[in-house]
């Protein structure tokens, strides 16, 4: 059965389209009898208002484009839940586009959002993204944009990021307070701003603890962590470990098990969304970066920009 339109209802009831429209909106100029007839017909034939057409007339699609670097079990799901919780309350819908860590696909996703007439864009950049020239078109047509998590420091767009300085300084202090002498610090993709920022602040803080020796490695994935530690742990021992993310923690955990390192003999500190460590080892100490909160903050900021843009 085809979808019933407002025009179909008008023909069934032998009244004008405008009368049906106003009756459905409880317009005071329409009699109660006509309103009842229209609403009964709408219910009988499962009439569903065309939100796109309504919003188009209002110059608003009530749709948000969400662009993420890749679909991942780490962190991204909780961010999406946070975004959804805010947008749903405000009557917005959103669709998710994955850039698959490709700046070319990221550019295609931006074009898709523009062609879909979204009211705004939420974006977390790929590890390949070094500049924002491909976002210039968004600025030209004045579509509000909020970046979150993976961003570029020189960006003129609104950004939602965690306090990376506080997070890594707290991690360094905890390792020092545990009297660790030799630590392994595992960071993510070396090319990302977030990785460079966390590394710089972490190493700067360690200067306050000259008794601690630190080895730094960079890994783009959990598998990369496992590959590197499979070699490193054969000839070096550490009494402290720092993982900058859930993904690096997953690789570290797997490696410690494989190399039969007793977690009771070492200190493991990680910056994490909070869920993963519960299923790994209760002795791991976590600095929580709540993805749900980041999602709610990013969505709220975008809605504010959309409102101000009208």
Structural features:
single chain, 310 residues, alpha/beta, 434 Repressor (Amino-terminal Domain), Rossmann fold, five-stranded parallel β-sheet, 12 helices, elongated
Q: Biggest sheet, strands in spatial order?
A: 2-1-3-4-5
Alpha-carbon distance between the two ends: 39 Å
- Average of per-residue pLDDT values: 88
Query: Secondary-structure element sequence?
Result: HHHHEHEHEHEEHEHEHEHEEH
CATH superfamily caption of the largest domain: Response regulator
CA-based gyration radius: 26 Å
Using the coordinates shown, work out and report the CATH topology of the largest domain.
Rossmann fold
Number of helices: 12
Share of residues in helices: 40-55%
DSSP strand content: 15-25%
CATH architectural designation of the largest domain: 3-Layer(aba) Sandwich
Number of strand elements = 10
Number of domains: 3
Largest sheet: 5 strands, parallel
* Name of the top-level CATH class of the largest domain: Alpha Beta
What global shape is seen? elongated
Explain what the structure shows.
With 310 residues, this protein is α/β, with parallel strands linked by helices. It folds into 3 domains: 4-48, Orthogonal Bundle (434 Repressor (Amino-terminal Domain)); 58-160 and 290-307, Rossmann fold (3-Layer(aba) Sandwich); 162-287, Rossmann fold (3-Layer(aba) Sandwich). The protein has 12 helices and 10 strands. It has a 5-stranded parallel sheet, with helices on both faces. Strands 7-6-8-9-10 form a 5-stranded parallel sheet. Helix 7 (136-140) links the parallel strand 3 (120-123) and strand 4. Helix 5 packs across helix 12 and helix 10 (222-235) packs across helix 11 (246-258). The longest helix is centred in the last third of the chain and has 19 residues, at 291-309. The radius of gyration is 26 Å and the shape is elongated. The mean pLDDT is 88. One of its GO terms (molecular function) is DNA-binding transcription factor activity. It comes from Chryseobacterium mucoviscidosis. This is HTH lacI-type domain-containing protein. Keywords: DNA-binding, Transcription, Transcription regulation.
């Amino acid at each position: 059965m085809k979808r019933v339109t407002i025009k179909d209802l008008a023909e069934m009831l032998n009244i004008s389209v405008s009368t049906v429209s106003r009756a459905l909106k409880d317009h005071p100029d329409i009699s109660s009898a006509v309103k009842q007839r229209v609403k009964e017909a709408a219910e009988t034939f499962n009439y569903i208002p065309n939100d796109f057409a309504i919003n188009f007339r209002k110059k608003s699609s009530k749709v948000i484009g969400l662009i993420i670097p890749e679909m991942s079990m780490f962190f991204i799901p909780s961010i999406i839940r946070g975004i959804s919780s805010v947008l749903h309350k405000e009557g917005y819908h959103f669709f998710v586009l994955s850039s698959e860590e490709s700046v070319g696909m990221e550019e295609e996703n931006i074009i898709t959002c523009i062609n879909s007439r979204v009211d705004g864009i939420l974006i977390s950049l790929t590890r390949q993204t070094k500049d924002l020239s491909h976002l210039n078109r968004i600025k030209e047509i004045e579509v509000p944009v909020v970046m979150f998590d993976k961003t570029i420091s020189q960006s003129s767009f609104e950004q939602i990021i965690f306090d990376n300085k506080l997070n890594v300084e707290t991690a360094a202090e905890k390792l020092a307070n545990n009297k660790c002498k030799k630590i392994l610090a595992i960071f993510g993709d070396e090319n990302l701003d977030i990785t460079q920022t966390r590394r710089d602040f972490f190493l700067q803080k360690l200067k306050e603890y000259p008794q601690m020796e630190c080895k730094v490695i960079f890994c783009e994935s959990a598998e990369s962590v496992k590959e590197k530690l499979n070699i490193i742990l054969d000839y070096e021992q550490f009494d402290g470990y720092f993982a900058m993310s859930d993904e690096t923690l997953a690789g570290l955990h797997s490696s410690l098990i494989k190399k039969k390192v007793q977690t009771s003999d070492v200190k493991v500190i990680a910056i994490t969304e909070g869920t993963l460590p519960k299923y790994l080892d209760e002795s791991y100490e976590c600095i929580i970066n709540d993805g749900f909160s980041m999602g709610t903050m990013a969505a709220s900021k975008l809605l504010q920009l959309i409102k101000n843009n009208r």
